[in-house]
Protein backbone atom coordinates (compact mmCIF):
# COMPACT_ATOMS: atom_id res chain seq x y z
CA UNK A 1 0.00 0.00 0.00
CA UNK A 2 2.87 2.39 0.74
CA UNK A 3 4.44 1.82 -2.69
CA UNK A 4 1.30 2.91 -4.50
CA UNK A 5 1.07 6.38 -2.91
CA UNK A 6 4.46 7.64 -4.23
CA UNK A 7 3.68 6.08 -7.59
CA UNK A 8 0.32 7.88 -7.68
CA UNK A 9 1.98 11.16 -6.68
CA UNK A 10 4.55 10.78 -9.47
CA UNK A 11 1.83 10.03 -12.02
CA UNK A 12 -0.05 13.18 -10.98
CA UNK A 13 2.95 15.53 -10.86
CA UNK A 14 4.72 14.31 -14.02
CA UNK A 15 2.13 15.67 -16.51
CA UNK A 16 2.12 18.99 -14.66
CA UNK A 17 5.88 19.32 -15.09
CA UNK A 18 5.53 18.62 -18.79
CA UNK A 19 3.12 21.57 -19.08
CA UNK A 20 5.96 23.99 -18.33
CA UNK A 21 7.06 25.18 -21.75
CA UNK A 22 10.56 26.14 -20.77
CA UNK A 23 10.57 29.01 -23.28
CA UNK A 24 12.22 32.22 -22.09
CA UNK A 25 10.62 34.26 -24.85
CA UNK A 26 7.56 36.31 -23.91
CA UNK A 27 5.03 36.26 -26.69
CA UNK A 28 1.85 38.17 -27.27
CA UNK A 29 -1.28 36.91 -28.92
CA UNK A 30 -1.94 38.47 -32.31
CA UNK A 31 -3.58 41.86 -32.25
CA UNK A 32 -7.17 41.34 -33.30
CA UNK A 33 -10.24 43.53 -33.13
CA UNK A 34 -12.27 43.16 -29.99
CA UNK A 35 -15.78 41.76 -30.51
CA UNK A 36 -17.37 44.98 -29.25
CA UNK A 37 -15.48 47.17 -31.70
CA UNK A 38 -18.22 47.66 -34.24
CA UNK A 39 -16.61 50.99 -35.16
CA UNK A 40 -14.31 49.19 -37.58
CA UNK A 41 -17.26 48.66 -39.88
CA UNK A 42 -18.33 51.63 -41.96
CA UNK A 43 -21.96 52.24 -41.04
CA UNK A 44 -22.75 53.86 -44.38
CA UNK A 45 -22.71 50.36 -45.94
CA UNK A 46 -21.09 51.62 -49.10
CA UNK A 47 -18.96 49.47 -51.33
CA UNK A 48 -15.90 51.55 -50.47
CA UNK A 49 -16.47 50.80 -46.75
CA UNK A 50 -16.02 47.09 -47.41
CA UNK A 51 -13.10 47.74 -49.74
CA UNK A 52 -11.31 49.93 -47.19
CA UNK A 53 -11.78 47.53 -44.28
CA UNK A 54 -8.35 45.78 -44.66
CA UNK A 55 -6.59 49.17 -44.77
CA UNK A 56 -8.48 50.44 -41.73
CA UNK A 57 -7.75 47.19 -39.91
CA UNK A 58 -4.00 47.66 -40.53
CA UNK A 59 -4.14 51.15 -39.00
CA UNK A 60 -6.22 49.82 -36.11
CA UNK A 61 -3.61 47.13 -35.40
CA UNK A 62 -0.82 49.71 -35.63
CA UNK A 63 -2.47 52.05 -33.12
CA UNK A 64 -3.45 49.26 -30.72
CA UNK A 65 0.07 47.81 -31.04
CA UNK A 66 1.55 51.15 -29.98
CA UNK A 67 -0.68 51.03 -26.90
CA UNK A 68 0.53 47.50 -26.15
CA UNK A 69 4.18 48.48 -26.61
CA UNK A 70 4.58 45.90 -29.37
CA UNK A 71 7.49 46.81 -31.69
CA UNK A 72 6.08 44.40 -34.27
CA UNK A 73 3.86 47.27 -35.39
CA UNK A 74 6.89 48.43 -37.37
CA UNK A 75 5.83 45.90 -40.01
CA UNK A 76 2.88 48.21 -40.77
CA UNK A 77 5.24 51.04 -41.76
CA UNK A 78 6.87 51.41 -45.17
CA UNK A 79 10.61 52.14 -45.28
CA UNK A 80 9.80 55.67 -46.49
CA UNK A 81 7.57 56.29 -43.48
CA UNK A 82 10.23 54.88 -41.14
CA UNK A 83 12.83 57.19 -42.72
CA UNK A 84 10.61 60.22 -42.04
CA UNK A 85 9.48 59.16 -38.55
CA UNK A 86 12.67 57.51 -37.25
CA UNK A 87 15.49 58.92 -39.40
CA UNK A 88 16.32 55.84 -41.49
CA UNK A 89 14.55 53.00 -43.32
CA UNK A 90 14.14 50.11 -40.89
CA UNK A 91 14.89 52.31 -37.86
CA UNK A 92 11.49 51.72 -36.26
CA UNK A 93 12.65 48.55 -34.48
CA UNK A 94 15.38 50.50 -32.70
CA UNK A 95 13.51 53.75 -32.14
CA UNK A 96 10.06 52.42 -31.28
CA UNK A 97 10.54 52.17 -27.50
CA UNK A 98 12.03 55.67 -27.30
CA UNK A 99 9.26 57.16 -29.46
CA UNK A 100 6.56 55.39 -27.46
CA UNK A 101 8.10 56.63 -24.20
CA UNK A 102 7.44 60.20 -25.40
CA UNK A 103 3.68 59.54 -25.39
CA UNK A 104 1.79 60.69 -22.35
CA UNK A 105 0.21 57.93 -20.22
CA UNK A 106 -3.19 59.38 -21.17
CA UNK A 107 -2.31 58.95 -24.87
CA UNK A 108 -1.34 55.32 -24.36
CA UNK A 109 -4.57 54.70 -22.45
CA UNK A 110 -6.58 56.40 -25.22
CA UNK A 111 -4.93 54.21 -27.87
CA UNK A 112 -6.26 51.13 -26.10
CA UNK A 113 -9.77 52.22 -27.05
CA UNK A 114 -9.26 53.72 -30.51
CA UNK A 115 -11.11 52.52 -33.59
CA UNK A 116 -10.92 53.46 -37.27
CA UNK A 117 -14.51 53.92 -38.46
CA UNK A 118 -13.86 55.52 -41.84
CA UNK A 119 -11.31 56.68 -44.36
CA UNK A 120 -11.14 58.65 -47.57
CA UNK A 121 -9.85 57.41 -50.92
CA UNK A 122 -6.53 58.78 -52.14
CA UNK A 123 -4.10 60.39 -52.63
CA UNK A 124 -3.11 57.69 -55.15
CA UNK A 125 -5.12 54.99 -56.84
CA UNK A 126 -6.05 52.35 -54.28
CA UNK A 127 -4.68 54.38 -51.37
CA UNK A 128 -6.71 55.48 -48.37
CA UNK A 129 -6.23 58.40 -45.99
CA UNK A 130 -7.35 58.58 -42.37
CA UNK A 131 -7.20 61.92 -40.62
CA UNK A 132 -6.38 61.87 -36.91
CA UNK A 133 -9.61 63.69 -36.06
CA UNK A 134 -11.61 60.95 -37.86
CA UNK A 135 -10.43 58.27 -35.42
CA UNK A 136 -13.03 57.23 -32.85
CA UNK A 137 -12.02 57.23 -29.19
CA UNK A 138 -13.77 55.51 -26.29
CA UNK A 139 -12.73 58.26 -23.91
CA UNK A 140 -10.54 61.32 -24.14
CA UNK A 141 -8.57 61.31 -27.45
CA UNK A 142 -4.80 61.13 -27.63
CA UNK A 143 -2.75 64.08 -28.87
CA UNK A 144 -1.28 63.83 -32.36
CA UNK A 145 2.49 63.96 -32.72
CA UNK A 146 5.41 61.56 -32.81
CA UNK A 147 4.06 58.09 -33.58
CA UNK A 148 0.58 59.57 -34.01
CA UNK A 149 0.56 61.43 -37.33
CA UNK A 150 -1.98 64.10 -38.27
CA UNK A 151 -2.94 61.93 -41.26
CA UNK A 152 -2.23 58.32 -42.10
CA UNK A 153 -1.95 57.23 -45.73
CA UNK A 154 -2.42 53.51 -46.29
CA UNK A 155 -1.16 51.69 -49.39
CA UNK A 156 -1.36 48.04 -50.32
CA UNK A 157 2.07 46.44 -50.58
CA UNK A 158 1.74 42.89 -51.89
CA UNK A 159 -0.85 41.18 -49.72
CA UNK A 160 -0.54 43.66 -46.83
CA UNK A 161 -1.55 47.23 -46.11
CA UNK A 162 1.10 49.59 -44.81
CA UNK A 163 1.28 53.18 -43.60
CA UNK A 164 3.24 55.33 -46.01
CA UNK A 165 4.20 58.98 -46.48
Structure commentary:
The chain has 165 residues and is of the alpha+beta class. It is 38% helix and 11% strand. It contains five helices and four strands; from the N terminus they run H-H-H-H-H-E-E-E-E. It has helices spanning 4-18, 47-68, 79-86, 92-101, 105-111, and strands at residues 120-121, 128-131, 151-157, 160-164. A four-stranded antiparallel β-sheet has the order 1-2-3-4. Strand 3 (151-157) and strand 4 form a beta hairpin. Helix 2 (47-68) runs antiparallel to helix 5 (105-111). The longest helix is centred in the middle third of the chain and has 22 residues, at 47-68. The chain is globular and about 75 Å long. Mean pLDDT is 82; it is low at 41-47.
Give the gist of this structure.
The chain is α+β, with helices and mostly antiparallel strands and 165 residues long. Helices cover 38% and strands 11% of the residues.
Could you describe the largest sheet, including whether it forms a barrel?
4 strands, antiparallel
Order of helices and strands: HHHHHEEEE
Structural class computed from helices and strand pairing: alpha+beta
Beta-strand content bin: 5-15%
| Radius of gyration based on Cα positions | 22 Å
Strand numbers in spatial order across the main sheet: 1-2-3-4
Mean of pLDDT: 82
Number of strands: 4
Please give the share of residues in helix: 25-40%
Distance between the termini: 75 Å
Residue ranges: pLDDT <50 for 5 or more in a row? 41-47
General shape: globular
Number of helices: 5
